[in-house]
UniProtKB/TrEMBL annotation:
The chain crosses the membrane at residues 30-49, 61-89, 101-125, 137-159. GO terms for biological process: regulation of cell shape. Signal peptide: none annotated. The lineage of its organism: Bacteria, Bacillati, Bacillota, Bacilli, Lactobacillales. This is Rod shape-determining protein MreD. Belongs to the MreD family. It is a multi-pass membrane protein. GO terms for cellular component: plasma membrane.
Length: 168
């Protein structure tokens, strides 16, 4: 797990970009926009399957957030702060809910909402968007949640087996 986690984390970081580029007509069909956050899913899976006792996870989340920002936008932005917040929220959810598929689905729902909303607020502050909150909820958050929750459902059991294999 010591070597597998960061390698897979950065593979999923690049997979986010590959999926966005390869399926651009499907993901970004005006007025809708779906964003792939496989990195967030990997962070959530790590907390769910390894437990909240990994103290270095927030540091890894900040590092991958920094790389995410620099790779996709060219500047340090919101993800360097949001990804560690996602880890903290997931750890709180881990303590508050019994670990199961459905609680993981709820945690991913909350985390993706936080990431999407934080990105929207950052874009509003920097005047990169003039969309209303209602437009963001309908045209961006809804499709992004649908895509990432579907990815969570598809990947949950294979990733659980991967974590079981890596920890043994």
């Amino acid at each position: 797990m010591k070597y597998g986690f960061p390698i897979i984390l950065f593979i999923w970081l690049y997979l986010d970009g590959i999926i966005g580029a390869a399926f651009q007509p499907q993901l970004f069909h005006y007025p809708y926009a779906m964003s792939s956050y496989l990195v967030v899913l990997w962070l959530v899976f790590t907390v769910l399957f390894e437990g909240p006792h990994n103290n270095h996870l927030e540091i890894w989340a900040a590092i991958v957030g920094c790389v995410f920002d620099l790779y996709y936008t060219g500047i340090l932005g919101v993800f360097v702060f949001v990804f560690p917040i996602v880890v903290l929220v997931t750890k709180v959810g881990y303590r508050e809910f019994p670990v199961s598929f459905l609680s993981g689905l709820l945690i991913v729902f909350i985390d993706i909402t936080i990431v999407t909303f934080a990105s929207f607020v950052a874009n509003m502050v920097t005047h990169l968007t003039s969309a209303s909150v209602a437009d963001m909820l309908v045209y961006s958050l809804g499709p992004t949640l649908a895509y990432n929750l579907a990815a969570f459902v598809i990947l949950y059991y294979p990733i659980q087996r991967l974590f079981d294999w890596m920890s043994s």
